Amino acid sequence: MSSDPRATPAIAGVALFLSPFTQEHHPMADLSTLIQFGGMGVMAFMVIAMARIAGPILTALSDRLLDSIERQTLTIDRLGDIAASMDKRLVVVEQQNDMLQDLIHAVIWPLRDVLPDDPAPRPSRANRVPTAPIDWEVGQERRVGDRRAGTERRQGDRRVTEHAAAGEPTGGR
């Protein structure tokens, strides 16, 4: 073995790392190394300062993000509940639809053979003659175009309305 401490690779690496601090190099090399270490120290300080400043901001942002995700999860849960409720209602509607179809096939379809093919049409409301008298209160006003409109006349102390379509008195107060 040699007596030179730089002979082993591990010791040689340590010696190379510590060489700027020894007197073997030029003094300006020591200054540049110190400036480099100082620059790295300043950069490390800046990184630590930025992390300390950004830490609460990132924490607040992550809290807001977690709150937003929680609200969205609750909304999705509510939508799932609504969808389940609508599905239950749809099942009920389908059951009612089946019951109506059963009713049609069991009751109404057999009646089509019994009923006439062309039932007599009902007269329209405009062509119908009133079957009961129309009583008007003494102070009541009729609207223009009222289908109950007719002519009025007095019979003693009561008012009688003749319907225009019938032409006969209908009574009243």
Which short descriptors sum up this protein?
173 residues, two-stranded antiparallel ribbon, mainly alpha
Overview of the molecule:
With 173 residues, the chain is mainly α. It has a domain at 11-81. 57% of the residues lie in helices and 7% in strands. The chain is built from 2 helices and 2 strands. Strands 1-2 form a two-stranded antiparallel sheet. A hairpin with a 2-residue loop joins β1 (150-155) and β2.
Kindly estimate the percentage of residues that lie in beta strands according to DSSP.
Answer: 5-15%
Helix share of residues?
55-70%
Give the tally of β-strands.
2
The run of helices and strands is HHEE
**Major beta-sheet overview:** 2 strands, antiparallel
- Terminal CA distance: 142 Å
CA-based shape: rod-shaped
Main sheet: strand order: 1-2
Q: Which structural class best describes the helix and strand composition?
A: mainly alpha
The radius of gyration over CA amounts to 52 Å
Task: Flag low-confidence runs.
Answer: none
* Tally of helical runs: 2
Q: Give average pLDDT, whole number.
A: 71
List the quaternary state of the chains.
Answer: single chain
